[in-house]
Design a protein that fits this description.
This protein has seven helices and nine strands. By secondary structure, the chain is α/β, with parallel strands linked by helices.
């Protein structure tokens, strides 16, 4: 069973998404297990503070190294092949190739960045990958963490039922259609392409491949 552990200030965000739909069913089937850990639980400070002013000045706050390292070490399972990831706007881009590579590990631990970021010493100590989900900045690392889990889980056998369900493995375009054959909206009719109604699978595959190549 693949283990995903998320270190975050907002565990409820992670739990709400991962308990539903495909990820929820995969957990019930014991194909994977996702657990969110409250970062503040590792804080040694009186009010469970984990963010402090950056050295050298500047705006915002930085998540301290000690609480992050302690949280990861507590979540880490012994005798498991583990990958630690820190979500970061400046990290390597999340791709299907990277997501697939994560399936080689028994446990993936994701630290959600927030504020101005994470003390760089924690990243160095944990030998963590810094991963970005796009060329933009979000308010926190919870959405990127969910994207990493979702993208990786799809490559775990059984999660999607059949590997035929992997969109990138199909001979298909981004344009898909279902009933009715003719959809009318504001007195205008929108039809399903005739080739998809032909029953000629060779022509259908050629059409989809062509559409796919033009949409890249």
């Amino acid at each position: 069973m693949k283990l995903f552990d998320v270190i975050t200030l907002f565990p409820e965000t992670i739990e709400a998404y991962t308990s539903a739909s495909i990820l929820g069913r995969a957990q019930k089937a014991k194909l994977l297990k996702i657990k969110a850990h409250q970062l503040r639980d590792a804080s040694k400070h009186k009010w469970k503070q984990v963010d402090f002013r950056p050295y050298g000045g500047g705006p915002g706050m930085v998540l301290e190294a000690e609480s992050i390292v302690k949280s990861v070490e507590k979540a880490r399972k012994k005798n498991k092949k583990v990958k630690v990831i820190v979500t970061s706007a400046g990290g390597k881009p999340l791709t299907n190739v990277y997501a697939r590579s994560l399936t080689k590990f028994d446990q993936v631990i994701i630290v959600c960045g927030r504020y101005e970021g994470i003390d760089a010493r924690a990243i160095k100590i944990l030998k963590a990958d810094e991963v970005s989900v796009g060329p933009y900045v979000l308010t926190g690392g919870e959405v990127p963490a969910l994207a990493i889990i979702d993208a990786t889980a799809r490559h775990i056998k059984g999660v999607l039922g059949k590997f035929d369900s992997l969109e990138e493995g199909r001979v298909a375009s981004h344009d898909v259609y279902t009933r009715p054959e003719v959809f009318e909206y504001k007195e205008k009719k929108y039809r399903v392409p005739k080739v998809l109604l032909s029953g000629n699978h060779k022509l259908i595959d050629e059409y989809r491949s062509k559409r796919r190549s033009t949409q890249k």
